[in-house]
Design a protein that fits this description.
- With 472 residues, the chain is α/β, with parallel strands linked by helices.
- The chain has 3 domains: 8-130, Response regulator (Rossmann fold), CATH 3.40.50; 151-315, Rossmann fold, CATH 3.40.50; 318-387, Orthogonal Bundle (Helicase, Ruva Protein, domain 3).
- 49% of the residues lie in helices and 12% in strands.
- It has 20 helices and 14 strands.
- It has a 5-stranded parallel β-sheet with strand order 2-1-3-4-5, sandwiched between helices. It has a 5-stranded parallel β-sheet with strand order 7-8-11-6-12. A two-stranded antiparallel sheet has the order 9-10.
- Helix 2 runs parallel beside helix 3 and helix 10 (255-264) packs across helix 12.
- It is elongated, with a radius of gyration of 32 Å.
């Protein structure tokens, strides 16, 4: 049965006169009515498309009480209105305790019946709307990978729903790896722009000289190597959302052009003279303190205010413990789909270890650990030793700072100075420290940079140089 415009009511009564009377009253009031002569026939017809069911208590084959019990089991959100004769009032009250919406005594007035049916119909409509909303939200969180089981996560998701259709520029802040891109994707999917593109650009991942062309595009011949026109990310995001990750890494000379675009949604391609308009909603993200960068002159104050229209701070994973295991499950399912095999499961000792871990690399670290553990585990079951969390913590302590090391006991002789032959070149020491830091942070270069006290751009450039030397 397909949903029609008018609310549908199912009437079950063994008296032809009552069925015809109720049918006449309800159809005159704008309801579509289906009728059954007993409870068994009603159960064969009932489904979620109905707004209300009216049951007579006394019917052959299957009475109203038995029919009510089955309907409550199969369709718990479907309101059931009981019709009873004067002598059935106690049974009607008992039916309400079993979950009936209300009861009405025969004979009844048309206004009384219509009032109860309308109330029940409105309640069913509310149930349907809530179910649809929950289903759509579950679809959004599943497809975006955003998990909101913890109080902090639920608060974030509530905020995402509130700001999704505002069209305002958003600034997502938080440690690297906390899920800023996941939240941006969730907001896009909740917004009116969901049918449009979601285009991302990461400022640190591109050389400074190519970043402007990547964002705004270029015309043919604009510079050496520009053999044809290329559309930038801004233009590709027209009608949708542009996500700028680590916006604090934008070069100062590029910041005015982004500011101009945020003000009037107009820009020019490199080498072009025509102004281009793009209907784009901008979501920016950073793990840096932009206010401090404004004070130090690394970031324009006017651009900061344009980006910081609605700031959203994402707490680190260690403050969202209830999200850890659901994220692990989601990650293992994603890995399994890619590998074309069943998802790995967690042993109890692995669950406990994951909940105790501090997660300095946040969600990105969790994904790296699950990728490795699911490959190393036996029989598809991840155990604590497969996680290697102690090894990660030990490496983290090694690079996190010499002040964490215990001083030698009093009276312990100082180590002998190194001979000239034992001195390790500074460049080699730097490479070892950086590589250990990145490994200890689960591959998260941003966290490693912060723990080492250097900029994220510096660690990206050095890491690229190390890889180039290895390939040489």
């Amino acid at each position: 049965m397909t949903r029609r415009e008018n609310p549908q009511v199912l009437v079950a009564d063994d008296e032809d006169a009552i069925r015809h009377l109720v049918d006449f009253m309800l159809e005159k009031a704008g309801f579509d009515v289906c009728a059954a002569a007993d409870g068994k026939a009603a159960l064969e017809m009932v489904n979620e498309d109905f707004s209300v069911v009216l049951l007579d208590l006394r019917m052959p084959v299957m009475d109203g009480m038995e029919t009510l019990k089955v309907i409550r089991e199969r369709h718990p959100d479907l309101p059931v209105l009981i019709m009873s004769a004067h002598g059935d009032v106690r049974d009607a009250v008992r039916a309400m305790k079993l979950g009936a919406f209300d009861y009405i005594q025969k004979p009844f007035e048309a206004d009384e019946l219509l009032g109860l049916v309308r109330q029940a119909s409105r309640m069913k409509a509310t149930f349907d709307q809530n179910r649809t909303l929950k289903a759509s939200l579950a679809e959004v969180t599943e497809s975006s990978g955003f998990v909101s089981q913890s109080p902090a996560g639920q608060e974030l998701f509530t905020m995402a729903r509130k700001v999704a259709d505002t069209e305002s520029t958003l600034l997502l802040t938080g440690e690297s790896g906390v899920g800023k891109s996941l939240l941006a994707r969730t907001i896009h999917q909740l917004s009116r722009r969901r049918s449009g593109p979601l285009v991302s650009v990461s400022a640190p991942s591109l050389p400074r000289e190519l970043l402007e062309a990547e964002l705004f595009g270029h015309e043919r011949g604009a510079f050496t190597g520009a053999h044809q026109r290329r559309l930038g990310r801004v233009e590709l995001a027209d009608g949708g959302t542009l996500f700028i990750d680590e916006v604090g890494e934008l070069p100062l000379d590029l910041q005015p052009k982004l500011l101009t675009f945020l003000q009037d949604r107009r820009f020019q391609r490199i080498g072009g003279s025509n102004e281009i308009t793009a209907d784009v909603r901008v979501i920016a993200a950073t793990n840096a303190n932009l206010e401090e960068q404004v004070q130090s002159g690394e970031f324009r104050e006017d651009l900061f205010f344009r980006l910081n229209v609605i700031p959203i701070s994402i707490p680190p994973l260690r403050e969202r413990q209830a999200d850890i295991l659901p994220l692990v499950k989601l990650t293992l399912e994603r890995i399994a789909r890619v590998r074309g095999m069943p998802a790995a499961s967690l042993a109890e000792d692995a669950r406990e270890a994951l909940l105790r871990h501090n997660w300095p690399g946040n969600i990105r670290e969790l994904e790296n650990i699950m990728e490795r553990a699911s490959a190393l585990c036996t029989a598809g079951v991840i155990r604590r030793e497969d996680l290697r969390l102690r090894e990660i913590a030990r490496r983290s302590q090694t690079f996190s700072g010499f002040e964490t090391q215990s001083p030698p006991p009093s009276g312990t002789p100082a180590p002998a100075p190194a001979t000239p032959e034992e001195i390790i070149p500074l460049e080699q020491q730097e490479r070892t420290i950086i590589e250990n830091a990145i490994q200890a942070c689960g591959g998260n270069k941003a966290v490693a940079a912060r723990r080492l006290g250097i900029s994220e751009k510096t660690i990206y450039n050095k890491f690229k140089r190390f890889r180039a030397e290895n390939q040489a």
